[in-house]
Amino acid sequence: MNNLKIMGALAGAFAIGTMILTTQADAAKKVKVTSNVPITATKVTNRNVAITGKNKIYNKAGVLKNAKAVTSAKQLKQLGNSQRSKDFFNVYRMATTNKGQVYYKVVSFEGKWRGWIYGGKTKADYQGGIRSVQTTKDVPLPDDVKNAKFTLGNPGISGTSNSWTAIPWSQYGARLKTTDSRPYANDELRVTAAKQLTRQYYGTFYYVVDDTHPEFNGWLNSSSLKAATTPPTNTTTTVTNYVQSPPEVVTNTVTNTVTKTVEVPAKNPLTINYNVYELGTSQNQAVSNQILKMYQDQYASVLSELTKNPDTAATKLKDLGDGQTLKSNDPTPMNYASIAVSFDKDKNVITITLNWVQPIIFVSDAQILTGDDYYPKSYLWSVMDGTGVSYQRGDWLDRVQISTDVNTKLPGTYHTTYTFKLMDGMTATATATVTVTK
């Protein structure tokens, strides 16, 4: 009997020991993320994807504990069958687990959906819940378009009348390069490329080049252009002067010794006109006044010389800064202004146009759930200096200073501030709101 008790006790102890070992082994096999990197650090060549409908979008990798679905089954089906360009997605992070699973963090072009989705077991090869897509396709450019000149059909503040960094809804973060095209209303535009959206409206867009104002170069809907009007060709008119009563006609030649008194109108005094405006819609008059004063201070010697010798106007365009960039020396606010100078010989008028803009950082607000990972750089899209030129992401991403008070463990409203120092010492700053919810 005692032996039986001893054997039973040993068996129980063995079972408990086995249970402990099994539990420890299970714990050792717990799924965890082993890497989480920006997609720019991978060999991915295309960041544009479509939802397949096979896997839901989660607030974190779906295999992790407490992962919550961002999309319902119905919403997932709608996204999988969608023909809206806005429902394409951009991939911006990649994570892998110790089980070999690959997850991608994605955001819809519209910005409505954001989260992690299963992408198979091969890095940088979209499978599972997403597939690689081309959001546009090349369109052959006819000769009558390639060799033609165009102007804007309806210049103004409409999105269809202004140039874009990329075709609208062809990629996440596509934005307007200009917000008011009226200053470019008379510019002749060349078309160098054409593309068509592969979803929804299937509209055709042209890449236009503005040789007069290169800051306007960008993508426009083809319907926004009209053929440039060709001025009439000058014709030679022969005038017969009747110096005696008809029908006798006397034609003067260069050999005749005819003296004529010609009344020459007095020459117009030299006039300098200034056009100062922001490359945008706010038109802050105080800043425009500051820009004008700054220009007149920096080019005071040339302007003074012109008043003394107005006949030299035609030779002074470069000296007046044509094609140059004016930089504010006042740090509040910092801004740039492009300078364009033209001279109307017949009217004796110099026109100085100053298009100004402040350096801009483009960021987006974030909405995340408690416990989510928060990567501030994922919400930073581009930087534009005052010349209207955007910096490539790889050129500036590591030079942005970020400060944030976000605590992903506590629900609340937080803020992240991004500061970018341009090559010449000027800075651009933007603040994004981060909302953490349960």
From TrEMBL:
Signal peptide: 1-27
Transmembrane residue ranges: none
Keyword Signal: yes
Domain (Pesticidal crystal protein Cry22Aa Ig-like) ranges: 389-436
One Pfam family, short name: GW
Matching InterPro entries: Cry22Aa_Ig-like (IPR032179), GW_dom (IPR025987), Ig-like_fold (IPR013783)
Keywords of the record: Signal
Location of the GW domain: 45-117, 177-226
Gene3D superfamilies noted in UniProt: Immunoglobulins
Protein name (Swiss-Prot/TrEMBL): Uncharacterized protein
